[in-house]
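FORM 12-B: Structure-to-Sequence Request
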């Protein structure tokens, strides 16, 4: 049945639509931190639909909210008052940390980042954007134009002039040998030099932890130091929290808070986990910025009632059960367990991350060179052992990506680590 579905997939969908595994997997249902395939095999899910299943599969509160709302009305568009949208926007504004916050809902992180770029370039009257090397911000024409990861950038055409800044990757590049303070100083000096060679940019967009790039991040405080430089020139700071938001990093509710010395970003984008699988994205910004557009706009499917009901139920569950604290505790144990394994596996260059957002960088033994074949082999072996994980990486890197639902238990973390250890040792 799966082979037939794969053949049908290939006959009607684009060749560039990526699939994991030599024998692609059809996931039919899930519960908690587990999913099942069409053959009835059960897997511990350590990737959560690319970080979208944030709390749990088939979370009762979310499924109940969806069912009850669907029984009333699914959709009416933003042309009408929408109680679930207002209620979720109020809750997000409350936890955003942004003063006088306004919230606009979209259907994806890509669309959220496009909206943030529209707001920033309009507000600043500039089409120049600063972005980070190794970054990823989405699949649309505008988002691809600011993506600093060649593997996910199919065209050099763009409506924006994009300039790339150092700092998103701590352990590679020209400043990797420096200590954290010197690393930050060098990146700030590079930013200041770059700004001396260009017209005033609209904004810097940055992921606090680079997701697709392999869960890399700078030392805490880098973006606060950048903010000082940007603020002097009126340049906005956009934090792309599509993967890092809602407490996944454990230490903070938002990834930007590791760099919050100078206050919150001007704009925050979000998506993925807030919907727990439903299509929700959005933008948070100060009213002054959000209201700068001088033309009408709507969102046909952004803020639709059934997705808003799901998002509100999911956010309430996350806050009431302190899943951020669970991500910190269980994620910390999992990182230390994987680092102990890595010390005995020559292919592992580094285990990095925070909370339940963990990257295992795989290289050819004795070198810093990427080994994508080894990553694929580990992915296959982990699946055979009953564990689903992701992969990623940027320039000459190959990384296993681990991001299970934030309700992961200690026993499940240990089970997944044991499966991954066997897969790594099989290389």
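FORM 12-B RESPONSE
SEQUENCE OUT:
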């Amino acid at each position: 049945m799966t082979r037939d579905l794969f053949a049908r997939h290939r006959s009607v969908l684009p060749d560039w639509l990526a699939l994991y595994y030599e024998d692609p997997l059809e996931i039919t249902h899930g519960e908690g931190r587990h999913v099942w395939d069409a053959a009835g095999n059960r897997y511990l899910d350590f990737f959560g639909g690319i970080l979208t299943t944030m709390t749990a599969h088939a979370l009762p509160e979310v499924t109940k909210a969806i069912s009850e709302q669907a029984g009333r009305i699914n959709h009416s568009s933003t042309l009408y008052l929408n109680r679930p949208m207002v209620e979720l926007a109020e809750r997000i504004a409350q936890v955003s940390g942004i003063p006088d916050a306004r919230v606009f809902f979209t259907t994806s992180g890509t669309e959220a980042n496009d909206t943030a770029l529209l707001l920033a370039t309009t507000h600043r009257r500039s089409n120049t954007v600063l972005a980070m090397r190794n970054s990823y911000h989405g699949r649309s024409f505008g988002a691809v134009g600011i993506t600093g990861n060649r593997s996910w950038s199919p065209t050099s055409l763009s409506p924006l002039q994009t300039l790339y800044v150092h700092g998103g990757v701590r352990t590679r590049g020209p400043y990797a040998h420096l200590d954290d303070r010197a690393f930050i100083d060098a990146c700030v000096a590079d930013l200041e030099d770059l700004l001396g060679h260009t017209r005033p940019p609209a904004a810097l967009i940055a992921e606090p932890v680079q997701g697709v790039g392999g869960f890399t991040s700078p030392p805490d405080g880098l973006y606060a130091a950048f903010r000082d430089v940007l603020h002097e020139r009126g340049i906005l700071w956009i934090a792309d929290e599509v993967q890092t938001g809602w407490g996944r990093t454990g230490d903070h509710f938002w990834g930007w808070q590791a760099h919050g010395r100078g206050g919150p970003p001007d704009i925050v984008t979000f998506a993925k986990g807030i919907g727990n699988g439903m299509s929700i994205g959005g933008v948070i910004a100060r009213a002054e910025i959000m209201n700068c557009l001088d033309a009408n706009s709507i969102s046909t499917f952004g803020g639709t009632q059934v997705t808003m009901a799901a998002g509100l139920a999911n956010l309430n569950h996350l806050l009431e059960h302190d899943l951020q604290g669970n991500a910190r505790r269980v994620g910390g144990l999992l990182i230390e367990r994987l680092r102990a394994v890595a010390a005995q596996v020559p292919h592992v260059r580094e285990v990095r991350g925070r909370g339940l957002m963990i990257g295992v960088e795989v290289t050819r033994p004795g070198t810093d060179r990427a080994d994508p074949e080894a990553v694929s082999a580990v992915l296959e072996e982990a699946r055979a052992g009953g564990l689903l994980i992701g992969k990623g990486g940027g320039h000459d890197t190959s990384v296993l990506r681990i991001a299970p639902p934030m309700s992961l238990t200690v026993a499940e973390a240990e089970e997944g680590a044991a499966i991954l250890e066997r897969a790594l040792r099989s290389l």
